[in-house]
Every structure is written in structure tokens, then in C-alpha cells.
Amino acid sequence: MEFAIVPPERVALPVAGSDARFPVRRVYCIGRNYAAHAIEMGHDPDREAPFFFQKNPDDLDVSGQFPYPPKSADVHYEAELAVMLGAGGTDIPVSAALECVYGYAAALDMTRRDLQGEMKKAGRPWEIGKAFSRSAPVGPVHPATEVGHPGAGAITLTVNGETRQEGDLNQMIWKVPEMIAYLSEYFELAAGDVILSGTPAGVGPVQRGDKLEVRIAGLAPLAVAVV
Predict the structure, then answer these.
(1) What are phi and psi of 128, to 5 degrees?
(2) Strand pairing of 136-137 and 60-61?
(3) N or C, fewer C-beta in 10 Å, the chain?
């Protein structure tokens, strides 16, 4: 095939213990998926229908550095479990959803909270606050064949060695199989899709020079420097 311009490089993430790379197709993010986080954001923690927004594939970043973005003075961390799909489809039943998962990784959903708030007040989309460049630092992908499917286990975030977020994967309002099944009712999911599964309570701002570390039981930690 002849392209009119040089095609951009395909986003691909390292796989732990392998030279293989996980190619990224789409990135879906669920909002307010831990009750305590819903409360701290001023919302009812009851099990309402899930909602999702998207980031761009090249927002995923494995460099270990997070450049503080322009046009914002209030950028927040959100520690999350990333779910990588190795298969997809439509109307996937909950009972079969985990068969679509290739693996998992520790990740961050960095958020320009001030810009997100402005968009919320105006009833506009959130992309300017969520889908900016390098807004999703991510660690190596661990195949489910090696780590299983973590339905429980500690998820923590520290800033400069101080614990700021602390929760358990079993506190998710919508579990991973349910997220996959729900998304597949509205989108045709496929291999290469990534789902960021929500964050526990304790989100807060970062400053240049901060050192962040996300730890999720069974996965390699994610260390990120704010630059």
C-alpha cells in the first residue's frame, strides 16, 4: 500500500519477561469505579450504569517521565489497573469476558483537573483534561497466563515516598468482566484495546519534581517522575 505521508509509528507496549510488544488499538477509561473515589469527587457511590471516556493510543507512555502539561495549574494523579485485550467482539457475555484479556499493567490516568472541571461546568467533552499527550504512563504488560486475573489485591500510589492512594481491586464497583461486557454492547472490541479500570480514593495534585510510584499486587511497579 502506498501512503500519502509516512505513517505514524504503531504504539506498542513492552511485555514483561519478553521481547514481544503489545500493540495498542484503542484506550477506554471508566469513570468513578471505586465508591470512595466517587464520594471524594462529590458523587453518589451507588452502582449506577458505568460511563467511559477515551484516551488516544499514543497517550500511553512507557518512558518513566510525565511532562507537566501546558495550560493547567492543577494536574492530578490517578492510579489504575490497565487491562489489555487479546481478543474482542460485540455483546460479549460476562461469563466469557476474561477469555478476551491478554494481560494487565500498572498505569496512571493523569488529569488536568482544572480544565476537566471547566468542561464539566460547560457541559462539554473532557478530552482537553484527559486525552492530552503522555497522559497515561504505563508499566510493562504481564500476560494473564502468568499472573492470572487479579480480582483482588492492593493498589497503592505514593508521591515522594508518601502514600496518597490505597485501595483494593475488589473495591471496583464494576469488575473487569462486567466492564468488558458493557463496553462490547456499544463498541466492537478487538485485540489491542486497553481499558483503564478506575482509581481508588486519594487523588491529588502533582508538582514538577515529584516522584510517583504505583504498586498493584502481582504486577511490576510503575515509577514516574514529573518533569
Answers:
(1) -65, -25
(2) parallel
(3) N
CATH class of 13-226: alpha beta
Distance of CA 98 to the CA centre of its chain: 17
Q: CA–CA separation, 184 vs 163, rounded Å?
A: 35
Strands (E), 56-210: 60-61, 65-66, 75-77, 79-85, 101-108, 111-112, 136-137, 142-143, 154-159, 162-168, 194-196, 204-205
Q: DSSP for 35-61, please give it.
A: HHHHHHTT---S-PPP-EEEE-GGGEE
Percent with pLDDT over 70 in the chain: 95
> Residue 12 in 3-state DSSP?
strand
Average pLDDT, the chain: 94
**What's the pLDDT at 43?**
56
Domain boundaries, the chain: 13-226
User: What's the chain's Rg over C-alpha atoms?
Assistant: 17
With beta carbons less than 8 A apart as the criterion, state whether 126 and 114 touch: no
Neighbours of 35 (CB within 10 A): 19
